[in-house]
Structure formats: C-alpha cells, structure tokens
TrEMBL record:
<feature type="binding site">
    <location>
        <position position="419"/>
    </location>
    <ligand>
        <name>Mg(2+)</name>
    </ligand>
</feature>
<dbReference type="Pfam" id="PF13090">
    <property type="entry name" value="PP_kinase_C"/>
</dbReference>
<keyword id="KW-0460">Magnesium</keyword>
<dbReference type="GO" id="GO:0046872">
    <property type="term" value="F:metal ion binding"/>
</dbReference>
<dbReference type="Pfam" id="PF13089">
    <property type="entry name" value="PP_kinase_N"/>
</dbReference>
<dbReference type="InterPro" id="IPR036832">
    <property type="entry name" value="PPK_N_dom_sf"/>
</dbReference>
<dbReference type="GO" id="GO:0008976">
    <property type="term" value="F:polyphosphate kinase activity"/>
</dbReference>
<dbReference type="Pfam" id="PF02503">
    <property type="entry name" value="PP_kinase"/>
</dbReference>
<comment type="similarity">
    <text>Belongs to the polyphosphate kinase 1 (PPK1) family.</text>
</comment>
<feature type="domain" description="Polyphosphate kinase middle">
    <location>
        <begin position="132"/>
        <end position="316"/>
    </location>
</feature>
<dbReference type="GO" id="GO:0005524">
    <property type="term" value="F:ATP binding"/>
</dbReference>
<feature type="binding site">
    <location>
        <position position="389"/>
    </location>
    <ligand>
        <name>Mg(2+)</name>
    </ligand>
</feature>
<keyword id="KW-0418">Kinase</keyword>
<dbReference type="GO" id="GO:0006799">
    <property type="term" value="P:polyphosphate biosynthetic process"/>
</dbReference>
<protein>
    <recommendedName>
        <fullName>Polyphosphate kinase</fullName>
        <ecNumber>2.7.4.1</ecNumber>
    </recommendedName>
</protein>
<feature type="binding site">
    <location>
        <position position="482"/>
    </location>
    <ligand>
        <name>ATP</name>
    </ligand>
</feature>
<keyword id="KW-0597">Phosphoprotein</keyword>
Length: 707
C-alpha cells in the first residue's frame, strides 16, 4: 500500500527532539478553529474565530511559506527542525495545510451555514431572490460595481496582468465567434478590496446576504460583449509578503540581501498559494501553475457550497443589528495593587509604591491617563517611549503632540517595520516629528519590540522618573482583547536601567550592566540559560527547584536544550505557550519533567512571565520577549525583574491560574499534537478568562507554585 505524505515522513519527524516551527503553527491554528466548533459559543463567536483562522492562514502563507520558497527558488539548503529538507518539508506542510483547509470549509458548510439560517441569516446567490430583489441587485451592480471593474485580457499582444494579493479574481476564458478553440484568450477581473463582501437585503425578520462574487458572476456578461464565454473560474492568490531579516532568522544577511535585490525587480512577490472554486478551467489553471512555478499541492479547492476567503465574515460579525448578540466583556476591575484607581493622583501613588496592571482585566486607562497628565503637567520635563503598534485614533499620539506643544522634550522610537502596521506608524511618526518631537524610525536591522515609557518630572527640586514597562503594545484597542502585563514604578534601579537603555537606542552608547533589566540582542538568551542551569544545579543538589514560563512562542533551540537538560536533572518545568512550541514535552529520557499547555479562548494570550524558584530566592520577570531566535538576536527586547513581593505574587498567580484552567487549555503531547483539557470528575470549571475578573488579594497572597 502506498503511504500518504503524512505517513511517509512521520517517522523522520517523530525521531527529532524538536517540533517543526511551521507544523506547530498549523496545530495552533487548529486550536483557534476548535474555538469556532465549541457548542457553547454563539454563531457570531463561531464566525469570528473562523475569520481569525482565515487571516492567520493568509499571514502564514505570506510570511512563512514565502520564506520557504526563498530557499526553493534560489536553491538554498534548509533543514527544518523536523529533520526534513526543503522539498520534503514543503510536501508535508502543504499536506497539513490542505487538511486544515478542508476542515475549515467542512465546518463552514456543515455547521456555520445551518446555524446562520436558524438565526434568520441566509447566504444565497442571485437566483434565490425575488424578481424585485434581483432588480435591486442589478441596479447596485450597474451603479456601484460595474464602473470599478476592469477586465484584463492576456494574449499574444498584451503582457500578463499583475494580479493583486488576496483579492478575489474571476478568470474568464473566451473565444471570438468563428475562431478556433486554440485561439481562446484568458481575461481577469479583480474584485476591488473596497467593495463590501456581501450585498445585504433586509427582510422583516431576516437578513439575506449575497456574496459580492455572485452579484458580479450574474452580470459578468456585461463585461464581455460579442464574445463567447467558455468558462468562468473564481480564484484568489496569496503572494510572498515579507523579506525582512527579522522574519528570516535562519538566513544569513548576505543571502537575504541578494533575494531582496532580485525581488526589487518584480512588482509583486511570488505566488505561494491559489484558492480556486470547483468547476474551474483546467486550461487556465495549468497556465497559471506554469507561469507561477507552482505544483498542484499549492492549489486549494473550494466547493461552490462554501466561499473563498472567510475574512469576509467580519462583515456579519460587525453588523449593527447583531451588536447586542455578541458576548459582552465584563467591565475592568481595579488592579490588586492599585485600589485607589480613579480616586488619587497617580504621580503621588507611584512615589509610594509600584503598580502591576493585568490587561484586559485592568483598564489601560491608567497608562493613558499618566501620559496625558504628563503632557499637561508643567513640572514634567521629558517623555520618552518606544512604539510598536498604535490604535488608529490613538490617545497616545494626541498626548505626545500636546506634550511637544507644551515645550516638553519628547523622544519616540517608532518601529516602522512592525508588520502590517508600517503605514500607520510612518504616518503617526511624521505627525510627531512635525510637532517638534525627536523621532527615531527603528534601528538598522533590528526591530524594536520592547515596550518602555519614561517620564521625567521635577518634584520639589528633586527629579523623579516614572517608568512603565510592559509586554503589550500601547494600543487602547487591542488592550481590550489581549492579555498583557504592565509595571508602573518609580523604582530607581529600574529607572536607571530604562534611562540607560533609552540612551543606547536613541544615541551612540554601549551600555554598562543592567541591574533589573535583561535586554536583547545583547544577553537575554545567555541570562535565561544561566537561570535554567541554576535550577538544574539546585535539583542535582537536592534543593527545591522549579521553572514556570508563559510566552506566546517557544522556538529557540539553545533554550529548548537547556530546558531538556534541566528536566533530566529533575527540575519540574511547566510551560504555558499559546502558539508555536518546538519543544517536545514528556519524552522519556529527554523531557519527562516538562509539561506544556496552550490557552486559547476569548482573549488573546499575549503576556510573558518567567519565574524561577531558585531555592526560594525567586526570580520573576515579565516583558516583551518570547523565546525565539528573532527575539534574542534580531529584536530590541527587554525583560524586567519584579521585586515587590505583592507584584511578584500577582505574576505567580497568573501562572497558577493559567495552569489551573480546564476550559481554554490544550495539553501538548509528545508527538506535537494537542488534547483539549476538561474538568476531572467532580472538578468545577475554571475559566481563566473569567476568574481574573473575580480575583481578590487573599488569593494572590496565598499562591504557591512549588510546594
């Protein structure tokens, strides 16, 4: 019997001590799709999670599959963590992606569409409408759509048109009356991105949605007069979308520059994926595959009963008539360490104690208010901060502009290479620069991912430095959806560290040693490995030990092997890794003392916490960095030590609550798969995304991670 691709390579993959980064990512997206399958979720939540899987998959193909093609196209060697070379690995990866794609569409047709119908929402083509409704659709097409469409023919006289990334495209094969069949021509009609995905018809108690491609399909003949249409094929392409050093960490710089130079000659990146509707023209598809140098495993077939591009489902989720049907997030609660929130001057409070914020359970307004007050306070002399992503209508930008107008020194490092936020960041940075702010547009080949704020204030002839260090972006929109950590402090040790770090990133300075800050690309990997090895030494000497880490991704092999060695020394290691995890837990003789869980639910887990027991003299850090090659070598990152006993307990409690979760948690298996965790017999449901809204001081103070 011939083995399937998955079977053919599985024995090689399972022999490796490491899990493939990209295969692990596919497993992560499966966990997101699983949220859309949960029986307790409303249809609108199910639509939301399905749309998220679609945008995730688009980005994955643009970045990771695009990077893989850089190796394939330029004959560069690459051995994946799975042990597979470029071609076999691509074969395996496409097999997994095809399986995931099929799962998405089966879920859509078998679950989503029937549930939408029960809610009075129908997705139909034009033929299912009444005559009056059909006329309404035709008028919409003629007035709003027809003027925007441009048929682009490809034949012996015209060059092949540039088809844009992620747009729906009709491929139309035509012949002129009386011409031979081999004289047929290909034409392409792109559907502009600024046309709504669905045309909506409201009935008394229902909503009818006509996909925009069905509106155009019905009227396509108006674009091809006096010719014979042989076939109409709806498809969508995804192109290689990123060539930065930061995302291509396994390439050497010289080779990447060579790739970038070659790509500069093209107007668009190479095509890495084709989604196409069933009933397509084989002649047209074969022509496209040959032109774009693709194999059939990069073609993803979509049934007519489904739809191409689930990101369009956001239009339904965002429909105003369903606003009350979406689950409401509870109001934020006061931080455990800041019971005075809203009643006392934050500058005064911070001179007395540190504040730990845990978003979205605690409001980001504490940070925004601090910056806005600093902008107006006549005693504030300077504001310095790093910015990675901002909200579209950002209070941060407005406050910094106001500060500059008030004559304060404002320094901002804007990371213009923040993927997919480049335009917004450049626009906001230019506004600040025009207002007189000192703006730095990133640092050479490094991405500035660290999240830091420094406010310098004159208090009674003394200078006080107010510092914020965090794991998340200064973005008030995502702060309602992402779990993140923020520390507000006037601690002189941290203030010195942060001041020193700003001097390094805004000037030409070589830092001295930081006391409570660990930074990358300088020494973060080595420092973390040193902490891990200390736990291993303690375990070998019979002393209490334990490692508890929460990150978005774990991919760096040096860190992974340090954790393996610690496990073999007897250290109990518990890891909470939302997305990619390249470490194999529970392998006999390698990692039997390591457990890995992933939390995927209502909020996107974004906080990073590192806790080392250290024989009772605990070390606890938070910050912006995951355990990835890019974080350690190609980004400006920072982790800050939390010394306040109460705040350290808060971070420990976050770890404890995550480990206790039996509602959103998935347990990673040795083979890289995941099993959903559920309450044991007699055990209550513990949903971490609800429990933090009910957290009290007593619970925090009683937390223990190592018995």
């Amino acid at each position: 019997m011939k083995l399937a691709v998955g079977d053919k390579y599985e024995s090689v993959i399972q022999k490796s001590d490491l899990v493939s980064r990209d295969l692990s990512w596919v497993k992560f997206n499966e966990r997101v799709l699983d949220q859309s399958k949960k029986a307790h979720r409303t249809i609108f939540e199910k639509l939301k999670f399905l749309a998220i899987t679609a945008s995730n998959l688009d980005e994955f193909f643009m970045i990771r599959v695009g990077s893989l093609y850089n190796y394939l196209d330029y004959d560069k060697e690459r051995v994946d963590y799975s042990g597979l070379r470029e071609e076999p690995f691509k074969e395996k990866l496409m097999k997994d992606c095809q399986r995931f794609h099929l799962d998405q569409h089966d879920h859509f047709t078998q679950v989503i569409l029937p549930e939408l119908h029960q809610e009075g929402i129908s997705l139909v083509n034009v033929s299912k409408l009444t005559a009056e409704e059909q006329e309404k659709v035709k008028q919409y097409f003629m007035k709003a759509i027809y003027p925007m469409l441009t048929p682009m023919v490809y034949d012996g006289y015209r060059t092949f048109p540039i088809l844009m990334n992620k747009l729906l495209v009709f491929g139309v094969v035509t012949t002129s009356p009386g011409e031979r069949k081999d004289m047929r021509k290909m034409s392409f009609v792109q559907i502009p991105a600024n046309i709504p995905r669905f045309f909506e018809i409201e009935r008394e108690n229902s909503l009818t949605l006509i996909p925009i491609e069905e509106v155009i399909r019905e009227n396509l003949i108006s674009l091809f007069r006096n010719v014979e249409i042989e076939s109409v094929s709806l498809f969508r392409i995804t192109r290689n979308g990123d060539f930065t050093l930061e995302e291509s960490e396994d390439m050497d710089a010289n080779f990447l520059e060579e790739v970038k130079r070659k790509l500069m000659e093209r107007k668009t990146g190479r095509v890495v994926k084709i989604e196409i509707e069933e009933g397509y023209s084989k002649w047209m598809l074969n022509s496209l595959l040959e032109r774009w140098n693709l194999r059939t495993d990069s073609v993803f077939l979509v049934k007519r009963s489904s739809m191409i591009d689930f990101t369009g489902l956001w239009q339904i989720v965002g429909n105003k008539r369903f606003r009350d049907r979406l689950p409401q997030v509870p109001d934020p609660v006061k931080p455990i360490s800041y019971s005075e929130e809203g009643r006392a001057e934050i500058f005064d409070i911070l001179k007395e104690k540190d504040i730990l914020l845990h978003h979205p359970y605690n409001n980001i307004d504490s940070i925004l208010d601090l910056i806005e007050k600093a902008a107006e306070d006549p005693d504030v002399m300077a504001i310095k901060m790093t910015i990675y992503r901002l909200a579209k209508d950002s209070r941060i930008t407005r406050a910094l502009l106001r500060a500059a107008e008030n004559g304060k020194h404002v320094s901002v490092l804007f990371e213009v290479k923040a993927r997919f936020d480049e335009e917004n960041n450049i626009r906001e940075a230019k506004r600040l620069q025009k207002a007189g702010c000192f703006v730095i547009y990133g640092i050479s080949n490094l991405k500035t991912h660290t999240k830091l704020l420094l406010i310098v204030k004159k208090d009674d002839q003394e200078i006080t430095r107010y510092v914020h260090l965090g794991s998340g972006n200064y973005n008030e929109d995502t702060a309602r959806l992402y779990t993140d950590i923020g520390l507000l402090t006037t601690n002189e040790t941290l203030a010195n560290d942060v001041s020193e770090f700003f001097n390094v990133i805004t000037g030409h300075s070589v830092p001295s040693d930081y006391q409570n800050l660990i930074t990358a690309p300088r020494d973060m990997r080595n420092q973390l490995i040193e902490f891990i090895e200390q736990e291993a030494d303690n375990a070998r000497n019979g002393l209490p030990s334990g490692i508890f880490i929460k990150v978005n991704s774990l991919e760096d092999s040096e860190i992974i092997y340090a954790l393996y060695r610690a496990s073999q020394s007897g250290v109990k290691i518990k890891l909470i890794v939302r997305g990619i995890c390249c470490l194999r837990p529970g392998r006999q003789g390698l990692s039997e003392n390591i457990e890995v869980i992933s939390i995927v639910g209502d909020f996107l887990e974004h906080s990073r916490i590192y806790h080392f027991h250290n024989n009772g003299n605990t070390r606890t850090y938070s910050g912006s960095a995951d355990m990835m090659v890019r974080s350690f070598d190609k980004r400006l990152e920072s982790l800050f030590k939390v010394e306040s006993p109460l705040l350290e307990k808060q971070l420990m409690n976050i770890l404890a609550f995550n480990l206790k979760d039996n509602f959103n948690a998935y347990v990673m298996q040795e083979d890289g798969s995941y099993l959903a965790k559920s309450p044991a017999e007699g055990e209550s449901v513990f949903n971490v995304h609800q429990e933090f809204f009910n957290l009290d001081l007593e619970t925090v103070q009683s937390v223990k991670l190592v018995e």
